[in-house]
């Protein structure tokens, strides 16, 4: 069989597992080193046990190999880049793919791309929104996966608004649990902050004020390096809403003004517009009459 050692090494590191712990009871250290360098192969039954420790089936592993060897950009990367930059053309490239020959991950992406375009207010040629049965398909696929890869978590973080309240509550809780598998990875803190902060803002904007408060407490407990200014700012923006919702309106308004100044100084004009609209809407939700 083909030697997949170097790719297994990538997956092991992504999982956050140390080599000696990962192969304990399977193969000796020297053989593990040679295997991951691509110098030797494993017996098939041992290889299956390795995949089990990665929480992958043979089919899922081969799908990952196929994606890695494909010269085209992975659909997940295309979709994530398109949504993060609000680039509709990139998202349309995913949405317009036929689903017949795609694997489950990519079928899910096609449905999410269609939904994102349908709910994007700036999209000119309106895309049909996914219906309840299609949304349920995506939900079932994610919630029933024993282990999520990083792109599952990032995509959920970007598309929280596409699911109904009960679905997103379950998905966020599962993503939060799954993300801890990647604690030792670079970028872990940003993914965690993105996931929780997006859910907090969604909860507040939809009037689920208690849920927003509960998750803000979790967000506030995350240790964020001082060098990561933008992540610090994301937490402060969520704090603006939390303070206002808990009756500390004066402190909320002061912090809001500070956040506006920082966003303006960093030239984050879109983010500045978004937070202004969201905060004005939020005040109405909690019963304020300051804005008429």
TrEMBL record:
Example GO molecular function: DNA binding
HTH-type transcriptional regulator Rgg C-terminal domain ranges (all copies): 123-269
Protein name listed in UniProt: HTH-type transcriptional regulator Rgg C-terminal domain-containing protein
Lineage: Bacteria, Bacillati, Bacillota, Bacilli, Lactobacillales
PANTHER family: TRANSCRIPTIONAL REGULATOR-RELATED
Organism encoding this protein: Vagococcus coleopterorum
InterPro entries for the chain: HTH-type_regulator_Rgg, Lambda_DNA-bd_dom_sf, TPR-like_helical_dom_sf, Transcription_activator_Rgg_C
Membrane-crossing segments per the record: none
Alphabetical list of Pfam families matching this protein: Rgg_C
Domain of life: Bacteria
